[in-house]
Amino acid sequence: MTQRIRKAVLPVAGLGTRFLPATKAIPKEMLTIVDRPVVQHVVDEARAAGIEHFIFVTGRNKAVIEDHFDMAYELDDTLAKRNKLKELEALKADLPLAGATSFTRQQAPLGLGHAVWCAREIVGDEPFALLLPDMLHYALSGKGCLAEMIDAYEKHGGNHIAVAPVPEDQTHQYGIVAVEDANAKVSRITGMVEKPPKGKAPSNLHVSGRYILQPTIFNLLANQEPGAGGEIQLTDSMVALSRLESFHAVRFDGEIYDTGSKIGFLTANIAYALDRNDLAPQLRAEIERLLDR
Ligand code: G1P
């Protein structure tokens, strides 16, 4: 029997310099994909996978994320008085249970590995999920990415990373893993490297921002030296962990949008809007009109 995955860590301390000036006063995680903040989409995926506690690793200027996941009494009251019951119910459905969120601050931008380490006291001694909010995983069939990973974890135990192929000219932007069987849905990982130099990637499978990790990772992160880009890299500690415990890659077959890039963000907005019956027909017509311009 594997220990149940109850907690998810969401690192949301990044400055969002690629989206300035939009992110001068608004956290990049609060930019919207259609009408939901990016970070809300990722919490939705985690909730659908059965996660009960959400741990946000935040930084300065991120307080509005905490407000977003709290009850807004005045807003609820106004919606009720105006008989906007549908909107009120939707807000209530999104609200995490009281006590089901935690917030801690990273203090200094020392890298993803450091951000995850900042959550160690709140996670405690149990395996946990890690979701990078920039990366939206759009499932084409039933289950979300994290739900698929939890299925794989319940079968194999140990540690899991979601992977997907990227074009070879992009491998230097990501963590890359080598696996025993590149075509299998779940395969043992044989190597990992963070942002390999061009032409040096061990495969085209990138680490897409969803992880299930054993708490052993925290001891390794505590002593992790800076790696690629001078930052404390999670991938480097995962390499060390893979010498101690099993590591599997779970191939995600849906679409992945890197909303930290402008093209990824814009494409995600169109893709998610085209999925909505209330928006799709008119949006399709508008896109056609623009393309003919
Ligand atoms: C991080 C991880 C990297 C992963 C990527 C996915 O990099 O270190 O392994 O492939 O997220 O977005 P970052 O985007 O923070 O540079």
Number of strands: 13
Q: According to CATH, what is the topology?
A: Spore Coat Polysaccharide Biosynthesis Protein SpsA, Chain A
* Helical content (DSSP H or I, runs of 4+): 25-40%
**Hetero compounds:** 1-O-phosphono-alpha-D-glucopyranose
* CATH homologous superfamily grouping: Spore Coat Polysaccharide Biosynthesis Protein SpsA, Chain A
Low-confidence stretches: none
* Global morphology: globular
Number of helices: 11
User: In the residues, how many domains can be counted?
Assistant: 1
Quaternary? single chain
SSE order, as H and E? EEEHEHHHEHHEEHEEEEHHEEHH
Give the distance, in angstroms, between the N- and C-terminal Cα atoms: 60 Å
Q: What value does the average pLDDT take?
A: 96
What Rg do the Cα atoms give?
19 Å
Sheet bearing the most strands, described? 5 strands, mixed, barrel
Strand order of the largest sheet: 8-11-9-10-12
Q: Based on the coordinates given, report the CATH architecture.
A: Alpha-Beta Complex
Structural class: alpha/beta
Strand content: 15-25%
CATH top level is: Alpha Beta
Secondary-structure topology with pairs:
Layout: E1 7-11, E2 32-33, E3 36-37, H1 38-48, E4 53-58, H2 63-68, H3 73-81, H4 85-94, E5 101-105, H5 112-117, H6 120-123, E6 128-131, E7 135-138, H7 145-156, E8 159-165, E9 175-179, E10 186-194, E11 205-213, H8 216-222, H9 234-242, E12 247-251, E13 255-258, H10 262-274, H11 280-291
Parallel strand pairs: 1-4, 1-6, 4-5, 8-12
Antiparallel strand pairs: 2-3, 6-11, 7-13, 8-11, 9-10, 9-11, 10-12
The structure holds 1-O-phosphono-alpha-D-glucopyranose.
Residues 112, 132, 134-135, 174-175, 194, 206-207, 209, 233-235 line the site of 1-O-phosphono-alpha-D-glucopyranose.
